Structure formats: structure tokens, C-alpha cells
From TrEMBL:
InterPro entries: FAD/NAD-bd_sf, FAD/NAD-binding_dom, NDH-2. It comes from the Bacteria. Belongs to the NADH dehydrogenase family. The keyword Signal applies. Its EC number is 1.6.5.-. This is NAD(P)/FAD-dependent oxidoreductase. Keywords: FAD, Flavoprotein, NAD, Oxidoreductase, Signal. The keyword Kinase does not apply. Residues 4-312 form the FAD/NAD(P)-binding domain. GO terms for molecular function: oxidoreductase activity.
Amino acid sequence: MRKQILIVGAGFAGMWAALSAARLADKNDSQAIDITVIAPQPELRVRPRFYENNVETLVSPLMPLFDITGVKFLHGTVSTIHSDTRSVSWQDAEGKTHQHRYDRLILASGSHLNRSFVPGVQAHAFDLDQLESAAELEKHLHSLADKPESEARNTVVVCGGGFTGIEMAMELPGRLRDILGSNAKTRVVVVERGAQPGARYSEELRNVIVSASNELGVEWMVNAEVESVDAGGVTLKDGRSITSSTVIWTVGVQASDLTTQINAPRDRQGRLHVNANLQVEGHEEIYATGDVACAATDDKGNHALMTCQHAILLGKFAGNNAAASLLNVEPSPYRQEMYVTCLDLGAWGAVYTEGWDQQVKLTREEAKKLKVSIVSELIYPPKAERAAAFEMADPYAPFV
């Protein structure tokens, strides 16, 4: 019977896991392994760019790539993992339920925002979590031009000062000018629970964020937590309120709920603890990758973050190692010693840092050029050319 590698998810980690597994099978002349991806759509949605305009264009088709590399695709959603029988239940586009067995399962089902722990967020806040919700926000922003001038219309509140919140907030002054006109008195406010803007980052990076915020007119409310959101805006736990018809929620990222179906340790974000080969603790036939994996990047105590930077390499190692275990090939322990950030700061430019201590290396236009190159070229899927795709899917291939 043919061996089955089943990959749940077609994001950065899932796509690269599929290509990496196919690469190793091809390298070892194996005709006895089927590699199958189950996902809601055969496209890579470029989530790191969802704060931009024209969000519905930020997708890349995967079927040409999968076809040329021999990866099978099933259009559907996995609902249940049966680890005892090594199978999953999944629903196709028509809602019919099917079963698919596996010899190796690679869980790459991503993450989502938890919008339920603060009253009113689900009903009244926008987010950038998925393509559909980001498109809804974009449509809403453009509709502001049709509304009468008011404080609520002209004010946008971004809840959360992490990377997503910062990039969205810094983009907003320019977008609001384009929509409402250069004479409109707009206001962008970031609500941050930390003691200062960019509180979780290095002092050097924080200083850049503060400088860009001041120049763009982005306000920060620090030491602040949201009590509730309603149609009129945001109420903070200290009693302050902000009138706004546009509240954007960017906090509370959690790993896919499918992680709860595997009896294994998870971290506070729901990510499954994995060993160096990315196997889930206690389940050597299951690999976790991308946003569902709590994986050590080095021997210094650092762990992969929920970013495409880590998801891409995690996917390559997971696919390689799942295939290696069926081919009697030595696995390749996951390591990702280098950590960089490139944060878009709107019309101000961008900032590029290196190392876990976030040493600033480039700012403004130099960093902006690098940011554009990363998000518009480097993180996109390879061309549908078999040899080139396999070369890039090598876990040790340079990321250039």
C-alpha cells in the first residue's frame, strides 16, 4: 500500500511542507509516497500584506506548482483528527464528509484571532486576520467618504501595538487622506497595554517606532486595556473612551483549534510542543509546523514566532522530515539561528533589524525598499518549474 503524507493547510508552512516532502521523495526516486494537501482553497494568501490596499489581489495560485511537483490537493476543511486510527475527517466544498488516512500527518492549519474575550469585538470591530475580514475592513474604510464629517468617522482605533497593529496604524494616515481628502482632520490611535509604544521590542527599535509615529501623527494610548467595543467606539478599563466608527482588533492570536484534538502539551497560544524534527511530543507520526508549532530555533532559549519568516523554514523542515521517516533517510533537525524583522512604517518608510536583540540596521527608504522586496517577491511561492521549486524547498537552501 502506498504511504500517505497528509498536510492540513496551504499557508506558508503547508505549501513549503508539501514541496519539501515531494523534493525528498523525488530525490530518492520514491514512487510509493502520496503527498496530499487539504485546504479551503488552492492558493497562498499573503497574510503579512493584509494591511495594504487591494487586499483581494494578495493571493498566489498553487495548483500549477502542485501539479508540476506531483502534490495532490483536496478542496476542503479538516474537522477531526483521529490520531488513534491515523486518519482525518474532512468536509468538501459541498459539505460532504470524507475520511483520509495518513502514515504521516503534518499539521499546518495556522492561527486565528480570538475575538471573544472582550465584549463587543465580534460585533463591532474589524480585523486583518483572514482575507475576507481584511477585505471587509478595506471596503468599510472606503465607505467613510460617503458619511458626514464627524469625530467618529475621522477616528480609527487600532487595538494592539504588535507588528500587525503597528503596520496597520502607520498605513492609516495616508489611506485616510486618500479617502477623506487632505483637509480632513483624521486621528489614528493605537491602544497598547504596555508602558510605552512598542514596549515588547528593543529600545533601539522602540525609538524608531516613536519617531515614525510622531512624524505621521499616530497617537499611542499606553498602559491601556480595552474594556469593551460598541457602535460608538472603544471604552478602556480605566474609564476613558474613544469615539470611533472604525475599531481594528489585532490582539489575541491563537493556534488553530485542531491542536486541541491532539493529546500533547501546548503553550499558552495553543501551539504544540515539538522536538527538533518537529514531531509532536508523544506522537512521532504527527508533525506540527508554522503557527501551530512551539519549536526551538536554537540552543539559546529562542522559539519560532507566528510569522511567515519562521513558517517558511518550519514548513520545509517538517515536510523533509516527514518524508525522511518513510524513506529511511536521516532527518534534518530544525534550526533557524538568524532572526530579522522588517517593519513597514507607512509614509515614514520602514525599519529593518537583525538578531533577537533587534539591532536596527536600516531605516526609512533603505528599509522600505527591502520590505517591498521581501513581501512582494521573497515570500511568494516559486514559479511552477519542478527543478527550481525543489531547489528552493531544500531546508538548507539560502533564503534569497
